[in-house]
Automatic annotation (TrEMBL):
InterPro entries: AAA+_ATPase, ABC_transporter-like_ATP-bd, ABC_transporter-like_CS, ABC_transpr_MalK/UgpC-like, Mo/tungstate-bd_C_term_dom, NA-bd_OB-fold, P-loop_NTPase
Name of this chain's protein: ATP-binding cassette domain-containing protein
PROSITE patterns for this protein: ABC_TRANSPORTER_1, ABC_TRANSPORTER_2
Domain of life from the UniProt record: Bacteria
Occurrences of domain ABC transporter (ranges): 4-241
Amino acid sequence: MTAIKLNQVTKTFPSNTLILNEINLLIESGELVVFIGSSGCGKSTLLRLIAGLDTQSGGDIWFDDHLMNEVPPGKREVGMVFQSYALYPHMTVKENLSFGLKQKKISKLIIEEKINQVAQTLEIDGLLDLKPDALSGGQQQRVAIGRCIVQTPKLFLFDEPLSNLDAELRVKTRREIRGLHKKLNATMIYVTHDQVEAMTLADKIAVFAPLSEYNSVNLQQFGSPLELYNQPANKFVAGFLGTPKINFILATISQITASAFEIKLQNSEFLIVKARNEINTDELEIGQTVELAIRPEHLFLDSNQGDTSINADYETRELLGAETLIYFNFGGTSIAIKCPDQIVELNPNNKEVALYFNLINCFVFDQISGKRLV
């Protein structure tokens, strides 16, 4: 097992485009950490820097107490599973698994033992004499993972390994990867754009965003899945985690005190937002545009389940079996609520519906910077 420390890591492309800026991150030995973010945020680039396939423009990469800046990829003892699987098409599964070991001049007996052990672990022992084109996508993915495991690396890196699989196989394979992590007790870094994968796989999640005028660093927040879900640092993190996506409602600040502030919603309703701690009034001003954020599962149709409400126009619903998603229009903004019921009766002739919620479950973000205010 290996602990990974990234200290002020930056990456600039030859075109002078800054893609990664000041990445500071500590991954404990044995953790499964997921890098997640939108396209262009640098998560795959960072994975390649850790693997040594690319070189950072600044900062340091440490494996335990060893500085890796000048260490070539082959000496880093890293195993990497790519999105494309990267299997040799002219080789059998067994030959694909043994290729790297043969390059290291390992004895045939040890190679045979390693292959048989890994094949049994991944349940591909019946596929050893087949070539990749005879395998399904899920089977090819297992072979790619197996080829990584037989090398007994200190660190496993996964670059969107499930993106080519269908939905059912993705669910099955991510459970297998999670089980493999527990069995090997190895340090793993997993890159994905799928927040469901991130929430279900990770010990901790690192959320990345592209650099912009209002965003000088890529890493937005690092912590456990529930920590990020329940206490997002900013609007980007809040909006990236959760299905359906969190609801954002535009508002302006109308009054400010030391412990609360009043916001005016799009329909001219006013809400008093109380803070758990003393408000930093330097971050707030009268007339400031903010966004009230409410997760779909925190909106209710029952007046007994909320301390405040808004009125919105009913649009449509989606019956998902165990739950129902209902969509409303609030002053031109689409709002979704998630009901843990199979059938929710709404009268389409009575379009305006009261949606109840508790302000303690809401977040308020500055619209421009995305910074969380409460």
